[in-house]
Amino acid sequence: MDERPKVGVGVIIIKDGKILLGKRKNSHSEGDWSYPGGHLEYGESWEDCARREVMEEVGIQIKNLCFGTVTNDLFIKANKHCVTICMISDFASGKIKTLEPDRCEGWEWFTWGNFSQPLIPSIANQILAGFNPFNEPKNTHA
């Protein structure tokens, strides 16, 4: 068991009023739907982590990147604890690809609140807290 929480960054990508989710595999929360994202690297900004993870996992460019919310997440089955920073962005360009097929079954677009189940704990916690990326003010960073 990890004694201290890890810091994760999840990225809500918005296109045509929908958000992108992938079905996880071979990791904690296997079978759960989640945003693209991963762990924050030493010295990395939240924005740089968001762009890097989206490019590594999905192969697309994002724009209008801003902070969304933060959640305190326990992954009971994996015995892990993670503080998840959720960033919000708009789709900019590119073709959606499953670039880490060993970690993700594939990507699909969903309307907010109309998701396949189960959801990764960070998204479930966001919904329980009343978070909705479409109601958040945009404090964008380039």
Write the layout of secondary structure elements.
Elements lengths: L5 E10 L2 E7 L8 E2 L2 E3 L6 H12 L3 E15 L4 E14 L10 E7 L10 H8 L11 E2 L1
Parallel strand pairs: 1-6
Antiparallel strand pairs: 1-2, 1-4, 2-3, 2-7, 5-6, 5-8
Task: Describe the model.
With 142 residues, this protein is mostly beta strands. The chain contains two helices and eight strands, in the order ββββαβββαβ. Strands 1, 2, 3, 4, 5, 6, 7 and 8 form an eight-stranded mixed sheet that branches. A hairpin with a 4-residue loop joins strand 5 and strand 6 (80-93). The longest helix has 12 residues, at 46-57. It is globular and about 40 Å long. The mean pLDDT is 92.
Summarize the structure.
The chain has two helices and eight strands, in the order ββββαβββαβ. By secondary structure, the chain is mainly beta.
